[in-house]
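tokens incoming
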């Protein structure tokens, strides 16, 4: 069932829903092959691939309901990984850019940067104040 609150553009959502039905019992997206991740071959990618599990499709189709504002009164920093900038995350990036009081940071790294370059994530985290 396609949800109007899905984080996916309509065609992408329909394609992923079909994949979940055909290959994941209707509840999950199957684990992509290693070619689906822009991570250099080697021990880190091997480690990552061994730990992947099917992804529940409901995480994209179910609305999140917060009982408190994001951050719950603490400072909020949104980090956008932009190389490539995933289209499915664009609504979140747009919201974060316009939220009063939020710090917005863009890094020209891939979505799974923590696997090939965990030091970049570490450097970012220690720089946030």
């Amino acid at each position: 069932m396609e949800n109007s609150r899905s984080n996916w553009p309509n065609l992408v959502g329909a394609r992923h829903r079909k994949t979940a039905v055909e290959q994941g019992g209707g509840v999950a997206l199957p684990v992509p092959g290693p070619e689906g991740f822009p991570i250099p071959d080697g021990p880190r990618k091997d480690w990552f691939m061994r730990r992947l599990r099917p992804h529940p499709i409901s995480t994209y189709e179910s609305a999140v309901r917060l009982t408190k504002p994001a951050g719950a009164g603490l400072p909020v920093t949104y980090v956008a990984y932009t190389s490539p900038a995933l289209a499915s995350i664009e609504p979140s990036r747009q919201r974060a850019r316009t939220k009063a009081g939020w710090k917005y940071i863009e890094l020209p790294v891939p979505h799974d940067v923590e696997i090939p370059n965990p030091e970049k994530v570490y450097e970012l985290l220690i720089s946030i104040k």
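note: The first strand starts at residue 28 and ends at 29.
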